[in-house]
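Narrative of activities, Objective 1.

The group set out to show that a structural description can be obtained from nothing but a protein's sequence at a throughput compatible with the screening campaign. Below is one input-output pair from the validation batch, recorded exactly as produced.
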Amino acid sequence: AYKGAKVCYLTDTEAGPDGPDPAVVEAARGADILIVDSMFTDDELNACAGWGHQSWRQSVELAQAADAEKLVLFHHHPMHDDAFMDAVAREAAALRPGVFVAHENMTLEV
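Output recorded for this entry:
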């Protein structure tokens, strides 16, 4: 927490087949800003199981379960170019308001 705001930064997080880990949800509960490693799409998960990363949709599910205000998706797959990430940003924001895709030189107000 910083100045009354809760910021939760989760790296190398991999959700299970039944959804987000309850301990991770509890750690993120009520975060004003939730920053989550979101390397993959759902389609890429099968080939990358055990890598310690999750899909951006799983991160949206985590934010929903934790009742986080803002979600920042980071640690993008190196094969996902800017146009791809712009599409992810649109799709994620349509699923849940307050979702952002991290980009170079991005700053967040706490």
